[in-house]
Specification:
The chain is 41% helix and 6% strand. The chain is mainly alpha-helical. A three-stranded parallel beta sheet has the order 1-2-3. Helix 3 crosses helix 4.
Length: 176
């Protein structure tokens, strides 16, 4: 339910394997083409929740730093978030979606620090864009426990969030 009392239905439209890095204009990687195939099946003007960046945080950024594409992870995050937000702007232009940007879930212990940094930069970039049709869902902090790890009860299989996290997502959408 949104803040007007209207029910919302979450309908997953999967684009597996897509890194934010793949969204750059020169990329020809299949998951980017699949993104456009999936987007074309969503009604124009729909509210669309975008959850990208996990693969970038888990492998793409660290590998890119190791290969000296970026001087450090923070530079890689800045470039990657810029690519992501630019693509969201293009998607809105093409489909007129109301875009809700979901934070990267901080599930994995090994990547949690990078995920938290990515989410901070992404939130700031979305806010900087200042478009009423693009909102960052600010609830990543609620996914974390007092010890900085994943909050109790939100772990599922060591890789994914438990579906009970959807109550936190719902609260974030209602707060818009």
């Amino acid at each position: 339910e949104d803040h007007h009392g209207h029910n919302r239905i979450l309908r997953p439209m999967l684009v597996t394997g897509l890194k934010c890095w793949h969204m750059r204009p020169e990329s020809r990687f299949y998951p980017k083409a699949n993104l456009h195939n999936v987007l074309s099946r969503i009604p124009h003007g729909a509210d669309v929740l975008f959850i990208f960046g996990e693969i970038d945080c888990r492998e793409g950024l660290l590998v890119s730093v190791e290969r000296c594409r970026y001087k450090d992870v923070d530079e890689g995050i800045a470039v990657t978030v810029d690519i992501y937000v630019q693509k969201l702007l293009e998607i809105h232009e093409d489909y007129e979606f109301n875009i809700l940007v979901h934070p990267v879930p901080p599930v994995l212990d090994l990547t949690r620090d990078v995920v938290k940094r990515f989410n901070r930069v992404c939130q700031a970039k979305v806010q900087e864009v200042q478009q009423s049709w693009m909102q960052y869902l600010n609830f990543a902090h609620r996914l974390l426990g007092d010890d900085g790890g994943l909050a109790e009860g939100l772990g599922y299989d060591g890789t994914h969030l438990h579906p009970r996290y959807l109550a936190l997502l719902e609260d974030a959408v209602k707060a818009l």
